[in-house]
Fold this protein.
Amino acid sequence: MSAPVQPASFSIGSVDAQRVEDALSLMAPKWTTWSAMTLAQAGRPMRVRDVSTRLPFVSEQFVGKRLATMHSDGLVVRTDDSFRAPYQLSTLGESLSPVHHALSDWSQAHLSLGPMAEAERVEDALRRLHLRHSTAVIQVLDAGGPMRFLHIAEEVDLDQGFIGHRLLRLQADGLVTRTGPRHGDPYVLTDAGQALGSVYASVEHWSEPIAVRRTSSAKARVTAATRTNISVPLAAEGARTAAALRRSAAPSALFSHAPQPQPRVPAAVTARSAPGRGR
């Protein structure tokens, strides 16, 4: 399958952070890259045990669970509906290859990890990038760094405690650093962090089919909600609804038995039962 054309702009700030992180969350679960690359290399449908045989360091049970998750996420499909049907990459799964290459190239150029398998390198990169709101923090630092902690929290509009933990993690992963040794010194992107533009662009480009599908689903839900709540229903459905509303307006509809009319009390009886006035 030919690689999709990459977008021209590799600016960190030009990508949709939420969309990038949603896409990364599909790729990041451990052994997802290994499983996808195994299926890609085989070039044919594979049963769980066949994939597991090529990944001897992962249990067959876990491989089965991971493939099931990938199936739910649309990364793989099954050849039929039977329980033991083989898996193969979907069109979306096949299009992961350029993203994997972008992640691997970025890692080799900017992280000192030593020799390792490409799948392991890609999963390590995904581990560093996929955490929620990391992309937004990196975008803020790319646009306005160096920045102090409080300023970053204000720009991202998140809890200071959360941002503190996220910055510590980004520091540990080699994506941000401080400009000096003091605790209050501003944060700035490392070379690895500054080089993420092409990676983010590749991930966002890959996620276009997902974004289109989610947008269509959201529009369908809005249409359904609007259709349900309009005051004047349409066609035959409207007639049935109107009839139901007319029936519900009758008091007897609220009870299992309609209330019976009460006998009228004669005026003479009412007069005798009234309390007399003292003289």
